[in-house]
Design goal:
This protein has helices at about 25-50, 55-65, 70-80, 85-90. The chain is an all-alpha fold.
């Protein structure tokens, strides 16, 4: 979709290099890492029940109240009782059973 018609010699697929060149790749990786944490946290909630008071309290204390006072990995580990895994992300994206 474009406002101005593209010219026949347009090779827009060759302009996607900005993702992999420079520092953008590191930023994109951080988006994926945040998605890993979000998917894993969601499955932690759904496994215990979305209205589970204990899980909600642990999330509030370990993630929300701590905020940026410690590394996120420490907050996630305090919340989930373990380190994060990619399993939930792969399941939720349809890449694993």
């Amino acid at each position: 979709m474009a406002i101005i018609p593209t010219v026949p010699y347009n090779r827009s697929q060759n302009t996607f290099a900005h993702v992999w060149a420079g520092s953008y790749a590191a930023g994109y990786y951080s988006y994926l890492w945040a998605d890993v944490l979000a998917c894993d946290a969601w499955e932690t909630f759904t496994a215990a029940g979305l209205r589970n008071d204990e899980i909600g309290r642990r999330y509030r204390e370990a993630i929300l109240e701590a905020g940026g006072s410690r590394p996120m990995i420490e907050g996630f580990t305090a919340f989930a009782g373990r380190g994060p895994t990619m399993d939930a992300l792969l399941r939720q994206k349809g890449l694993a059973p």
